[in-house]
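User: If you would, consider this record:
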Amino acid sequence: MPGSEDSTGEAGGTPAAPRAHVMQCMEVWGGNEAADNAVTMPGLQTWVLSRPYRGEASGGDIHYLSSCMTGRITRLLVADVSGHGASVSDVANTLRRLMRKYVNYIDQRRFVTDMSREFGELAQAGRFATAVAATYWGPTGEFVACNAGHPRPLWYRSAAKEWSVLGEAGRARRTARADQSGPSNLPLGLDAGEPPRYDELRVRLAPDDLVLLYTDSVTESRDAGGRLLGERGLLDLVRTLDPSRPAELIPGIVAALAGRSGADAGAISGASDDDLTLLLLRRTRDGPRMTMHDKLVGLAQYGRKAVDAIRGGSDHPFPWPELTLRNIGGAFIRAFNGRAER
């Protein structure tokens, strides 16, 4: 699997089918531009639709995907930043740098902590954001999510043929830091007087399971009578769609939102006067597969880039690996991969 530089989804209209993109090693894909893409990576298929407010080229919603050097770690981020248009671009670039810095980390807590710290500084300028950051660990199918005041993701369990809210009782196991005092799971940049903590929700995704991330313009969309859709309304909506055809789920949701409001399905927000972003992922039946030759070639490329970083030959943070047996040893000996939990 060759290495790749960061990339951004193309801006544009609404094509008949999402454009296809295949993630490469250590790639960070996404941004705050308009997007309608299918993205493939080891063990996962994803579909992303992002429509900025009033048809602008960029908006306040930010979406990112990243893949590690060995294809075992996939990180996802959906954030809703206060403001619209070009004013959010600096925030998007900051988040891209953090995604790149921690692309080779299984444990996402340092990424979330740094993201919270960045928004703590931006709060002085009145900027804040809600966000969901998630990590998929390919060897075991474990999915770990942190929620910073954002709408809760939905989870489709293929074995039970059931949609639910990720994190409801019986659907996920919650872990948190030992210190339980102080605020928790607050929006990024919201000054609460002390650093917030962020709980982690852990589930094991089975093949054909789906997870839907979205911004609040979905649940805050209104019907012709002015009634909000809400989280329960979204659950009822997705239950009417065919989960065996995941590529059609996001278009189906947008069409339903537009139908409720009496708007054209091609409207920028579908039903809400705001940025709109939906990200759907599906666990596939294949997983990360790299030959020993691929691993050695990738390691050599990584080593050369590390030397350049030490010499100061790059302005971007170098994606150093998480120094754990599971991360380093598991790249060469499968038995070391284990579960991505503590």
The chain has seven helices and 14 strands. The helical segments are 89-101, 109-122, 216-219, 230-238, 249-261, 292-310, 325-328.
